[in-house]
Amino acid sequence: MIAGDFNMIYSSEDKNNDNVNRAMMGRFRRFVNDLELKEILLLGRRYTWSNERDSPTLVKLDRVLCTNDWEDLYPESLLQSTATEMSDHCPLILGLCEGTVGKRRFHFESFWPRLPGFYKTVQRSWDEPVQASCPLERISIKLKQLARALQSWSQKQTGNIKEQLALARHILHHLEIAQDIRDLSVDENWLRCELKRHCLVLFFFANVPEHVFH
């Protein structure tokens, strides 16, 4: 399986204008045919790259190619996309099997200790009395209480950064899908640019090094 930015197109339908290099396009097509590769269909998107102009050039530069043997190993593979955010390329997500939805687990976020009130929340929760005679049972109860306390604190403190980021990505992705088939309005393009900046801020806040806050 070969995946990534090939920086070439396979056919004229891979670009939203007629400015194509047919010689390069033919060489790329021969390369794919000589290696007996087939393309995994990208669901929901026509193009994967934009030059970010007011009247953008849209091109399908990113793709996933595979052999028949690989396809036999992963017959249920699924290729999807997500919002571009900080890049001018559309990220591709290759799934090899469907996951099973289960009970939501507690996830500790690495940026929590950098936020004000984190250690007070931990101390307050841990100091709460627990009615249990077994030491291991007491620790188990305290950990469950702490998980609930941190989740509640996180919702109030950060407005759930990951959910905000997921929502911004979702809207941005749909605007980019619309841009594949029509020109965005002035308001839609303004919103698309604002969402890209918003995603950048949220991503930075969730991953900024600890010393920045000191």
What is the CATH domain class of the domain at 2-95? Alpha Beta
Main sheet: strand order: 1-5-2
Q: Residue ranges: pLDDT <50 for 5 or more in a row? A: 208-214
Number of helices: 6
Rg to the nearest angstrom?
24 Å
Mass-distribution shape:
elongated
* CATH-assigned fold name of the domain at 2-95: Deoxyribonuclease I, Chain A
- Class by helix and strand content? mainly alpha
Short description:
This protein is mainly α. 44% of the residues lie in helices and 11% in strands. Among the domains are: 2-95, Deoxyribonuclease I, Chain A (4-Layer Sandwich), CATH 3.60.10.10; 112-158, no CATH class.
What does this protein look like?
The protein has 214 residues and is mainly alpha-helical. Among the domains are: 2-95, Deoxyribonuclease I, Chain A (4-Layer Sandwich), CATH 3.60.10.10; 112-158, no CATH class. The protein has helices at 22-34, 68-73, 118-126, 135-158, 161-181, 186-207; strands spanning 2-5, 38-39, 49-50, 58-59, 62-66, 78-81, 92-95. A three-stranded antiparallel sheet has the order 1-5-2. It has a two-stranded antiparallel ribbon with strand order 3-4. Strands 6-7 form a two-stranded antiparallel ribbon. Helix 3 packs antiparallel against helix 4 (135-158) and helix 5 (161-181) runs antiparallel to helix 6 (186-207).
